[in-house]
Here is the input.
Amino acid sequence: MDIRCDRIFGADWGTEHRFSTRMRVRDSRLPEAALAAVVEWNHVERVGWMARVAGVESHDDGDVFWTYCPGEFWPGNQVVGARFAAAHARARVAAILRHHLERRAACNWVIGSATVPAELGTILRENGFSCQIHYRAMVATLGPQRGALGSVPGVDFQQSDVPVPLQAVTTARRRAQFDGLVAVGRLRPQRVWYFGAIDSSIPVGTATLFEGEQVAGIYDVEVIPSHRGRGIGTRLVREAMELASGHGFRAAILSATASGHGLYTRLGFRDVGVLSSWRYGRMRQLGL
Ligand SMILES: CC(C)(COP(=O)(O)OP(=O)(O)OC[C@H]1O[C@@H](n2cnc3c(N)ncnc32)[C@H](O)[C@@H]1OP(=O)(O)O)[C@@H](O)C(=O)NCCC(=O)NCCS
Here is the structure.
């Protein structure tokens, strides 16, 4: 469906700016509901982009998108963008879960305020899933940056198509994740950029920019605990916003944890909905 930007961001967006998304809008009277669909759709696009990396099995079923990775390694078994007919939702959840359980794997669902049916969380809970975390879905308009990006004493900032790992790449899981992120950063046309903060050769902060078809998504913002509260997170997000703006994007989205919410709000992001991450929790009981 098309979402009219002028109705959401104001008349200066003009009617020519539209977002397309296959997410439905639950309550079309609320501009926030339309924007929540835009945020969720960027997640779907991003998982779809990661699924282009060799070895990732992807399923675009028309009413949901999901990936399956042997061993649950990167990018994990992710189910996103659900928009089920209410009558079929239980059967659809059960079918996707069966695919994973037959392969002795768990799966993770991301659901948002644009996911349909609205009671999908209840259905997931009935099937043994539990909600791990709620995120605020946030949107900001992009434009010329206000003021200098801001320096942080002793910390260098870099941008590249190779990720900056905050943890040593020592385990098989971390290696698979790192290799996957490298591979997705090398896909062309380039849609993924990594930002790193480095203190004395040690990575202390990261952020990722994923450029969707119409909005830029900012993901994986993290600063190691010892370096928080010094402006590193703010600078990383501003760099991502500036790059996206320079590439012609007029809006950015992200999903915020409680610890990032204040920072993002100060940078112009506003709440438009909620996203939550669900994980299957019965592996042990099933002896898998
Ligand atoms: C969210 C996160 C990335 C923020 O990183 P950070 O480097 O601490 O961010 P900043 O320093 O720019 O801002 C954090 C706070 O310090 C304040 N601050 C920034 N520079 C400062 C300075 N020089 N002096 C004092 N305070 C400062 C900011 O105003 C902000 O205040 P707030 O907590 O009231 O919002 C970090 O807390 C984190 O990694 N959390 C865990 C992972 C996570 O939740 N990531 C977010 C996913 S959306």
Remarks:
- The radius of gyration is 19 Å.
- The first helix runs from residue 6 to 9.
- The helical segments are 6-9, 31-50, 89-102, 120-126, 172-186, 232-246, 258-266.
